[in-house]
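= Tokenised fold =
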Amino acid sequence: MNMYFLVYGLILSAGLLLGADTAPTFETAVQPILAKTCAPCHNEKITSGELNLGPYAIPGSIAQHRDDWQKIVQKIRTGEMPPRGVPRPSPAQVDALVKFVQGEFIKADRIPAASRRAV
């Protein structure tokens, strides 16, 4: 029986270690929400609120369009977006998006202003 717990513990530990290496990416934390929840109403053809999220569908957009991303995150976090009647991402998905975007802001803040390229 003790051997069972030892093997189970090793498997559990290995799983936790492997999972710890999986950091969220733009493709896993942001893009799914933009594509599924936001893009149907905020695209080239339909610009609800005069917003086309097409230019925000790439990782570099977070640093390039920080002010806009701050508004996007706030609207998602507060529940203003998506509007009623549109399925809302799970709290875990919202949390992952917010943390990822905020992490990108922190990374951008570490780059000296003179080194940043104007795009």
Q: What stands out?
A: Helices lie at 2-20, 26-38, 61-64, 66-78, 91-110. The chain has one domain: 24-115. The CA atoms of residues 17 and 111 lie 30 Å apart.
